[in-house]
Design brief:
Radius of gyration: 23 Å
Order of helices and strands: HHEEEEEHEE
CATH superfamily of the domain at 1-53: IHF-like DNA-binding proteins
Strand content: 15-25%
CATH architecture of the domain at 1-53: Irregular
Largest sheet: 3 strands, antiparallel
Mean pLDDT: 79
Oligomer: single chain
Distance between the termini: 27 Å
Strand order of the largest sheet: 1-2-5
């Protein structure tokens, strides 16, 4: 979902105009950035917590010329979902039916020496109901 879709969905749900919702989201973004820049912790209960984290300086190494470089300390923002929003998400509604997983295995998963993972359950074809498997 992008910002325009979010604005439309909230405007429809709250029965206000898109311009009003857009102004609120822009204000929220500006306040969030300013608070994090000051070093404040921003917590929206039931949704998210954002704060500044500390990364110490480190020495990096370029393997080709074997040179070392010094990286300064950093303070990037760190966000975490609220505990109530960490529940498992319901399965997505795909055209193949419930329980279908279009995820492809990674090269690392394919090259492991362990026993292969079981294949996903057969999915129903949208047209005629013939079973097929995702690979």
């Amino acid at each position: 979902m992008n910002k325009a879709e979010l604005v439309s969905a909230i405007a429809k749900r709250a029965d206000v105009t898109n311009a009003q919702v857009d102004a609120v989201i822009d204000g929220l973004q500006q306040e969030l950035v300013e608070a994090i820049t000051r070093g404040d912790k921003v917590a929206i209960p039931g949704l998210i917590t954002v704060e500044r984290s500390q990364r110490s300086a480190r020495t990096g190494r370029n393997p080709r010329p074997a040179s070392r470089s010094r990286s300064p300390p950093r303070t990037p923002p760190r966000s975490a979902p609220a505990p109530t929003s960490r529940r498992p998400l319901p399965p997505s509604r795909s055209s193949d039916g419930p329980g279908c997983s279009p995820r492809q295995p990674s090269r690392a998963e394919l090259s492991t020496t362990r026993a292969p993972a079981p294949l996903p359950a057969p999915c129903q074809d949208a047209g005629g109901g013939a079973a097929r498997r995702h690979r």
